[in-house]
Structure formats: C-alpha cells, structure tokens
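RECORD TYPE: protein structure
NAME: GNAT family N-acetyltransferase
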Amino acid sequence: MTIWKELAAFAEMETPRLYLRPLRFSDVEDFYQLVSDPENLAFVFPAILDKEEATEALVREGMQAPLGVWGMEDKEKGCLIGMIRFEKIQEGSRQAEIGYLLRKDFRGKGLMTEALKTLVFLAFNSLQLRELALVTHEENRASQAVAKRVGFQLIRSYKGSDRYSHKVRKYCLFGLSQTSYQQLTEEIEEKDDYH
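PREDICTED:
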C-alpha cells in the first residue's frame, strides 16, 4: 500500500481528548479564530485578519490537498482548536516533516503532545516511514518541549530566512527515526511490565 492510500485510510482518527479529522468548510469560524490571533501564530505565519483571506487559507492549506492534514477538534468543546500535518513527504526515502499549530487557550494541557504521538505512531507503524523531522524557531521552547516529550532529538541549530518576513532567524531541527522510536516504545513497555 502506498503512503497516500494509508493516509486516506487514516483521514479520521481519535485520541482520548481529540478528533483528528479532515478540515471542513464549516470550520471557517473556528479557523478564523485560530488564524486571526497573532499569539496563536507567533511561530507559524502572519495573522490573517481578513475573514475572506482566512477562508481562502482554510481551503488552500487544509482542504485542497487533504491527505496528511488533520484539523484538531476538541471533544469537550466540539470546536476546531488547531491543525497538525505531514509536510514535505518523500515517499521514496520514506521521510516527512511534521508541522502543527494550536490555539493559545488550549496550550499547556498536553493536547499537542497527544496529537503528535498519534501522528508519530501512524508514521512508523502504518506508513512505514523511516525518519521524521520537526523544525521550530529557536525561541519556541513550548514546541521544542512537545517534540522532546514524544522522543524527537535535537539534530542541529541553524540560521535561515523566514519565509514570510524574510528576516534571518534561528531554527532548531529535531529528528526521530523509526529505529529510535521502536527502542523508546520497547523501553516504555519494559517499564510498564515492572510496575
């Protein structure tokens, strides 16, 4: 089965507190709330203050090519609170990058860690990817903490041009291989066996 067929099979997933699902046009209000607040997007892209532009971004970024893109719906509130996606999927070398964003009022609750763990599990167990990458701005400590909690390791820090402001910024590249993930999983299972 190709990566794309597998992604289609897992277009909708559930975690204890989230529905990971395709974005819908009915998400426009929640999506606008997410992308119009600069605090939600400090490390992603400039806020989109015009509702029509936000609607276009929802369609273009989340609905036009939906495989590998999930809206994060909070089960309790029943609203879209963020997005998580595979980016730069390289089917031949079995690699991908993961990107995500979350509304500020839902941060600090472990929701992004929950979603990221689900995508990592999918990547290595169903998609048979070999390596995952995750890039953060150097000052985005919260995103780095999420990556580390899931098992990503810092590969390197580097300077690069921000794609929106075109200013030079510092970035951190994190990586997780299928082999490292399997070792972490085995260690966790061993600890569980002893408790």
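COMMENT: The longest helix spans residues 178-194.
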